[in-house]
Each structure stands twice: as structure tokens, then as C-alpha cells.
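task queued by scheduler; priority normal; single chain, no ligands, no partner chains; default sampling; output format set to C-alpha cells
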Amino acid sequence: MKTKIKNLKSQEDGAAFAQAINPKKEPLTIEKLRTFPGCEHYNDEEAERVVQTINQYALILFECVSKAKVVHLPDTNNISYLNPIKKKAS
């Protein structure tokens, strides 16, 4: 089965896609990895390294997110990031 990757536009889209491709929350295997576009050519050793790297990355992300603190920003509706405010010359 070939896995088709969708264009994800929100966190909800990402969660729904993850649920759709792995509803039982099974660990990634080299066989499953090879179903993703661009991953078909990996030999067993390469695929195992990719799977291990993805698992390590997921653990790092989980650790960072679990330690994250919520930072409330002031109202930024009036700030233009395309045209930042320039300081006046003194």
C-alpha cells in the first residue's frame, strides 16, 4: 500500500492525517517507511537508520513540548511583519 502525503494546513489536519495513516499507533517499521514517497529505495540498513532517527527526533520533540511554557503575547494585530517599524534617526 502506497501512502499519499496530504497538504496539511493546521494542527488538526496533522492529527487527522496521523490518525488515518496509523490508527492503532503502531511503531514505524522499515516496511511501513518504504510505503512513503521517496523512501522506497532504502536498503534494510538505511531504512533502519531512518526509523531510528525519526524515533529519536520524536522523543526530542516530546521532551521539548512537555517542558514548554505558555507565553502570552500582547495584541499583535497592528504589527506588520512585512513592513517593520523603523527607528527614527536621532
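post-processing summary
- The radius of gyration is 20 Å.
- Residues 26-67 form one domain.
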